[in-house]
Amino acid sequence: MSAESLERQTRSFLNDNVPQIQEHGGHFEIEDVDDETGEVTVVIGGACSGCGIAPMTMRAIRHRLPDEVEDLSKVTVRRANGPRAAVMPNKTDEMEEMDEYEDYSPPF
What we know:
Structural class: alpha+beta
Number of helices: 4
Largest sheet: 3 strands, mixed
Strand order of the largest sheet: 1-2-3
Protein name: Thioredoxin-like protein
CATH topology: GMP Synthetase, Chain A, domain 3
CATH superfamily: Fe-S cluster assembly (FSCA)
Shape: globular
Number of domains: 1
Distance between the termini: 26 Å
Organism: Haloferax elongans ATCC BAA-1513
InterPro entries: FSCA_dom_sf (IPR034904), NIF_FeS_clus_asmbl_NifU_C (IPR001075)
Order of helices and strands: HHEEHEH
Helix content: 40-55%
GO molecular function: iron ion binding; iron-sulfur cluster binding
Pfam families: NifU
């Protein structure tokens, strides 16, 4: 599979299945694609940077994307860095590990 095809499939899944990101003022970027290993890195930003449910959205993308994109072996999802990234990373990390979010199923 070519990197372009892997990237195109990833973008298509995100556009079709995670419209809430854009509807709520966020955005995503496909930062890196490695066609040899099947690894993709997705960055979410904009309003996602300060959103309390972003960790759950990130987890859902990590778990669902490999099931939907052929030849995708690993997904890394992170928040965008920079001056507009108004988030407390230590709290975000804690949220990702909380049992309450283990079975969270966002509407995509």
